[in-house]
């Protein structure tokens, strides 16, 4: 079982953006951060999610169940319905990766419960701005 937490940080809208990813595999945490470039808030959330799912094969087997947590309602709803008016390309790419796993359970969680991924995104954003 894999727990996957993602978040994006954006300075301005659009503006410099970064992803924070917290993977929990067999009780061990893997912390990832990645600068995304200049994006809108919503696009950064999708880009962070895509980045996160792209990283899973580096750390886990494809027969794992994934529990995916995001504080982005647009990402959560778009993945649940397989539709995002302005971000369909992201939804399609994320779904293609999710299809490689037997089960992906997505859950929205309040921002206050996503501190790990949020702090990693902020670190990546500030590191790139220095």
From TrEMBL:
RNase H type-1 domain ranges (all copies): 1-130
Pfam families linked: RVT_3 (PF13456)
InterPro entries from the UniProt entry: RNaseH-like_sf (IPR012337), RNaseH_domain (IPR002156), RNaseH_sf (IPR036397)
Superkingdom: Bacteria
Matches recorded under CDD domains: RNase_HI_like
Coiled-coil annotated spans: none
Entry's transmembrane regions: none
Alphabetized SUPFAM superfamilies for the sequence: Ribonuclease H-like (SSF53098)
Any one GO MF annotation of this record: RNA-DNA hybrid ribonuclease activity
Identification of the protein by name: Ribonuclease HI family protein
């Amino acid at each position: 079982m894999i727990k996957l937490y993602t978040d994006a940080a954006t300075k301005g809208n659009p503006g410099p953006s970064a992803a924070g990813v917290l993977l929990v595999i067999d009780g061990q945490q893997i912390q990832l951060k990645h600068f995304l470039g200049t994006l809108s808030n919503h696009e950064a959330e999708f880009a962070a999610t895509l980045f996160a799912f792209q990283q899973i094969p580096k750390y886990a087997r494809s027969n794992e169940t994934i529990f995916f947590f995001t504080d982005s309602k647009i990402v959560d709803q778009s993945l649940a319905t397989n539709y995002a008016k302005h971000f369909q390309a992201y939804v399609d790419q994320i779904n293609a990766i999710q299809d490689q796993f037997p089960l992906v359970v997505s859950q929205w969680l309040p921002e206050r419960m996503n501190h790990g991924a949020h702090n990693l995104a902020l670190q990546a954003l500030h590191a790139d701005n220095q």
